[in-house]
Amino acid sequence: MNQPEASVAIQVLPDVQGEELLRIVDEVIAYIKSCGLPTCVGPFETTIEGDYDKLMDIVKQCQKICIQAGAPSVMSYVKIAFNPKDGVWSIDKKVTKHHS
């Protein structure tokens, strides 16, 4: 399998409280999973890997989903690894050994 060109970890923090926060974050995660790219959901962020431009489109849409779901604003933390020539380590390479 070829290495992905990029990897993005995103944490969205909609400006809402309680269960509403979980509902909106769950909508964002559902959207990310629907994109069909390798994804790893963690307790603080979701990691996605693939084509850099596609990942940036997903990051942009995550903000809009929060607003459309009812948050008046959203703060996001995004980490990006990008190596178009040699690729980046895959999610599996980074974490599989820790999940066995």
TrEMBL record:
Organism superkingdom: Bacteria
InterPro entries referenced in this protein's UniProt entry, alphabetically: MTH1187/YkoF-like (IPR029756), Thiamine_BP (IPR002767), UPF0045_domain (IPR051614)
Domain named Thiamine-binding protein: residues: 8-98
GO cellular component: cytosol
Family designation: Belongs to the UPF0045 family.
Cross-referenced PANTHER family: UPF0045 PROTEIN ECM15
Protein's recorded name: Thiamine-binding protein domain-containing protein
Source organism of this protein record: Solibaculum mannosilyticum
